[in-house]
Amino acid sequence: MASKYKGYMGKILDVDLSTGKTSEYPISDKDRELFLGGRFISTKILWDELKAGTDPLSSDNILIVMTSPLTGTGAPSSSRYDISAKSPLTGGIGHSNSGGNFGIHLKRAGWDGVIIRGKAEKPVYIEIKEDQIEIKDAGELWGVDTQAAQEVLGTGGKIVIGPAGENLVKFATVVSQERVHGRTGMGAVMGSKNLKGIVASGNKKVELDKPEKYKKSLKGWFKMLQNHPATGDIAPKYGTSVFLKPLSDKNTLPTKNFAKGSFKDADMISGERLAKEYLVKNYGCTSCPIKCGRVVNLDGKEIKGPEYEVLCLMGANLLINDMDAIIRWNYELDLLGIDTISVGNVLGFAAELNEKGLWDNGIEFGKKDNISQLLKDIAERKGVGEDLAEGVRFLSEKYGGKDFAAHVKGLEIPAYEPRGATGHALGYATASRGACHLDGGYMVYLEVTGPATLDPFHFRSKPGWVVLDQNLLAAISAGGNCLFTSWTFIPNIAFKLPEHKILSWIVTKALTYTWFLIDMALKTPLFLMKFHLPLLPHSKFIKLATGMKMDYGRFVRVGERGYTLERMFNMREGIGQDQDTLAKRFTEEKLSKNDDRTRVPLKEMLPKYYKLRQWDENGVPTKEVLKKLGLSSL
């Protein structure tokens, strides 16, 4: 359905693999205003089209690839797009956002998104050349790794799955170039449909509402990112791996299946060592000035280097200090199409089960000689890999160990120890897709790793911060930018604070104990928020690109609305308050023996979190908030 707003191509492709028929899916401008794009437009479609109780790996599930209004407009780090479906790992809303160039090519082909229904009788891939849509045989590609498959598919933007997705590994990924949709098992959904990949190409242009002003204003945004310490210096120099050593120093680095918070050999797998001894060059997604990606050398070949999550979860979490081995495993995981976060958790949990005599599986902390074979076994569901492929929650239900199973709603916990940052822990517990540092609000940056931090253990201040961060980051994602563009929210001057201990202490106290101002901001009516934040210019550029009425108030409301819709979707699938939780290891065991604060006070934080979201005491969105958000029909 054509749109009056620029930035959108105005069309969504609907493909039924069971029948081979293609059509155009109608989406209204009202929905564009309410949800912008990406995961939230997809969630609205899933809400409308998917029956409650649908088996995620059945032909009835729907897979959606969706761009956003800023995708392909030249805005900083705006090559983002989303893949959504009902998750086979959690049974709730599943979505995964990534870079790569597929989203840009999809819009150049004239489409904002693709909906995939049904199941092909045999392996296929979809070729989109503007209005020419073909479903082609992929028999020769079945079993081929993600890199080789993309090479065969030819020119254009491509997304593919590897052997893990074909064999329905619950945490299988979707890969575009060397960027990965890692979380919630979207690769398994593609595999369940016998869909190896999609390739898109075209010469359509993304039209802008105020093209001259947009392009002129872009220069300022790029300059701000390039001159900011986080996005212009630290991230390009070290990538996300810069966090590893500071997190270990501050007892917040998951170690030995989250039993500890620091790793004695953190220096050996740190971002600083990676940069000094292994880095060949940086790379970044299309239109990204940050270029946080690492390029390293493996066996004489330049490949994508490891990010923080895999360095921690395949390193410290398994008590392994071998950088060369982690680089190799990271490469193998991408070729197989396996989520590095989930698999690091799965192997760590399996090692502890083995250590405690609950499951004799041959997996041990510090043992690395069988890891590569285990990764293949998971992808092919062979031997112990058959059970490992189901994820931590399944293993805990089959073999025991629920008290130390690091997952939320079935999604394995990322590489930040929740007992070291209580706000981050609350984000894990309440994130719509399960344990997620990004969907959870990425509070650890404001509690531990950032230049200006809150008291990480002051739990009363955290619910408001978590709600605000969740809403803002979700809106940035729905608009089409990488979340790293939000780092400029902390002004440059804050990066000088660590040099001044007394001033740093004062700022920490001020940020922590003025939490009531954050709570008040969440209650501010829209008519008082008709402005754009200079340090977060995303709302301004959406307005310039689309012509849509947009300001900070409307922008943050998009995040709140989408979060509430995802909550409703999960509730319809039977996922409610009882799954807003963490394992007892995090809520009952102290991370530091002599510090009672190092247990997550989740029960103390959840009631206020629900109240600030205008959900009732059971975590159910009230009629009042649904009306406020324009969701009364739910």
Task: Describe the protein in words.
- The protein has 634 residues and is α+β, with helices and mostly antiparallel strands.
- The protein has 3 domains: 12-201, Aldehyde Ferredoxin Oxidoreductase,  A, domain 1 (4-Layer Sandwich), CATH 3.60.9.10; 241-410, Aldehyde Ferredoxin Oxidoreductase Protein, subunit A, domain 2 (Orthogonal Bundle); 418-628, Orthogonal Bundle (Aldehyde Ferredoxin Oxidoreductase Protein, subunit A, domain 3).
- The protein is 39% helix and 12% strand.
- The chain has 26 helices and 17 strands.
- A hairpin with a 2-residue loop joins strand 7 (124-129) and strand 8 (132-137).
- Helix 19 (462-479) packs across helix 23.
- The longest helix is centred in the C-terminal third of the chain and has 21 residues, at 552-572.
- The mean pLDDT is 96.
List the helices and strands and how they pair.
Elements: E1 12-16, E2 22-25, H1 29-35, H2 38-49, E3 63-66, E4 81-86, E5 93-98, H3 102-108, E6 113-117, E7 124-129, E8 132-137, H4 146-152, E9 157-160, H5 163-166, E10 174-176, E11 179-181, H6 186-192, E12 195-201, H7 211-227, H8 229-238, H9 244-249, H10 271-278, E13 279-283, E14 293-298, E15 301-304, H11 308-313, H12 323-336, H13 340-355, H14 371-380, H15 385-388, H16 392-399, E16 407-408, E17 411-412, H17 422-430, H18 444-449, H19 462-479, H20 501-513, H21 515-522, H22 538-546, H23 552-572, H24 584-587, H25 602-612, H26 623-628
Parallel strand pairs: 1-6, 7-12
Antiparallel strand pairs: 1-2, 3-4, 3-6, 4-5, 7-8, 9-12, 10-11, 13-14, 14-15, 16-17
Helix pairs in contact: 2-23, 12-14, 17-19, 19-21, 19-23, 19-25
